[in-house]
Design brief:
With about 260 residues, the chain is mainly β. The chain has a single domain, classed as outer membrane lipoprotein receptor (LolB), chain A (Clam). It has two helices and 13 strands. It has a 13-stranded antiparallel sheet with strand order 6-5-4-3-2-1-13-12-11-10-9-8-7. The longest helix has 15 residues. It is globular and about 50 Å long.
Length: about 260
């Protein structure tokens, strides 16, 4: 699955040699380029837990397809009633030949307003519909937006991992840096940390139920916790299908407007 946080990779006093920095870039590229199929579809169960332990449940469906070098994703909320029909479409593009990044195109449809609006680049670090995931987590983040470094090595649940830092080049980014623990064998992210503009820990990510589905490494459960607000979102995948036919008409702005995505 290309979507969500396993694609979005502490300022350190470590002195990083040129070759070590290149290794960090290579690791980041392997994480970024993990095979995810030509198409996929799945249902997501979301559990939102507030600081008092009160829970809210949501369900959405997601469809993904590659069209040439463009990766298209559409998401629609199914339940509960207050969010049902909210849908989100994003097109992710490869970097240019000179290495510069190309911003994704994203739109959101709000059924109460019967209107599609474009999601601006400045809004992509905002929380997505009350969850602890951001709009940026729903797409494929360009490697060119970050500087990478290896902070060390550590075992996570018995898995040997690289500790990889991705520091945002944009000084105005709401997430200043991301630290991920990357499996040395599979290059699948095992856990992560997200830091705010003041370099304070803001969110933690725990990845579970990682397995191969049709030969593709897939994270089927993620828990994102905002340690500053004591709110968390549990994201669980079910009914996952890779490389099966999807309705290509879903991946258009007009499909959002006409509420065709089911």
């Amino acid at each position: 699955m290309k979507n969500f946080v396993f694609k979005a990779l502490i300022s350190s006093a470590l002195l990083i040699s040129t070759s070590f920095a290149q290794t960090a870039n290579e690791i980041a590229k392997k994480v970024h380029n993990l095979p995810s199929g030509k198409t996929s579809s799945y249902t997501v169960s979301l559990t939102l837990v507030d600081k008092n332990g009160k829970t809210r449940n949501r369900e959405l469906v997601s469809y993904f397809m590659k069209e040439g070098t463009t990766e298209k994703t559409v998401i629609v909320f199914k339940t509960p009633r207050d969010v049902a029909g909210i849908s989100y479409l994003t097109y992710d593009y490869p970097d240019k030949a000179d290495g510069s990044s190309v911003d994704s195109d994203s739109w959101i449809y709000l059924p109460a307003m019967k209107k599609v609006r474009r999601v601006s680049g400045s809004s992509k670090d905002d929380d997505f519909q009350g969850t602890d995931f951001t709009y940026d987590d729903l797409g494929t983040r360009s490697l060119n937006k970050d500087n990478f470094a290896i902070l060390g090595e550590e075992k996570v649940n018995g898995v040997d991992c690289w500790i990889l830092e991705a520091k945002a080049k944009d000084a105005k980014a709401k997430v200043s840096r991301r630290v991920t623990w990357v499996d040395k064998k599979t290059f699948v992210v095992q856990k992560g940390e997200y830091y705010d503009k003041q370099n304070r820990l803001q969110k933690t990510l725990i990845c579970e139920n990682i397995k191969q589905v049709k030969g593709y490494w897939t994270t089927q459960k993620m828990t994102m916790t905002n340690v500053q607000s004591n709110h968390k979102t549990i994201y669980e995948v079910k009914d996952l299908k890779y490389d099966e036919a999807v309705n290509t008409s879903f991946f258009t702005v007009s499909a959002l407007e006409r509420e065709l995505v089911k």
